[in-house]
Amino acid sequence: MASCTIILLAGxxxxxxxxxxxxxxxxxxRLDDFYRNGxxxxxxxxxxxxxxxxxxxxxxxxxxxxxxRLVASGRAVTPHYVISENRTRGSQEICTAGSPAVLxxxxxxxxxxAPCRAAGLAVLxxxxxxxxxxxxARRLGRDLxxxxxxxxxxxxxxxxxxxxxxxxxxxAVARGFQPMRMxxxxxxxxxxxxxxxxxxxxxxxxxxx
Length: 209
What we know:
Layout: E1 5-10, H1 17-22, E2 28-30, E3 45-46, E4 49-50, H2 60-73, E5 75-82, E6 87-95, E7 101-105, H3 113-118, E8 122-128, H4 132-145, H5 151-175, E9 178-180, H6 182-192
Parallel strand pairs: 1-7, 1-8, 2-7, 8-9
Antiparallel strand pairs: 3-4, 5-6
Helix pairs in contact: 4-5
GO molecular function, one term: ATP binding
Protein name: Uridine kinase
Keywords: Kinase, Transferase
C-alpha cells in the first residue's frame, strides 16, 4: 500500500518536535490537530480536570485514517485544532506532491507506530532525545507565551511531565522508536527524502518550540 514513508516524530513535550518539523520541507501532519473537543463527555479526567496527556483525549482512529489516505491518494483533509480553545476550528488539506516522505509529529506519536504498521504503512520512528531540564524550560516558556492554559496548570503539568520523561523514553524505545539528537534526526530525514531541503536552524531566541 505504502508509496511513501511516514516519519513518526515523537518526544516529550518541549523537546523540539515542532521546531524540527519546521526545519524540513517534507509534507507534515500535526498530530495535535486530532485532539478531541474539550466538551466531549468521554474525555479522561484526573481530579476533575481533563487529562490532555492521556491518549484517550486524542482521536487515534482518525489520525491513522488520515495518514492512510495521504499515502494512498496523495492528499487528506485534517482538522485544525486550537489548543487555547480546546476545540477544532475548521480543516485543512495536506498534499504529498510526490514526496517520498510525510512527517507526523505530536506527543502521541508513539501510540501510532503499531496501528500505522498494521495499516500497511512504511514508518520511520524517531524519538527526539534531549535533556529533560531543557525540555521543561522550553515547554513552560512556550506554553506561557501561547497562553495555552492557566500558569498554575502549566507549571504543575510541566513538573509532572519532567518526572515522567525517563519512563516515556523507555516505553518509546520498547515500541520500536529510535532515540536521536536533533542533528542526527535531521540527517535521517534528509537521507529518506534527499530531494527536499533541510533548513539551517535559526537562533533559539527566534524559535518557538
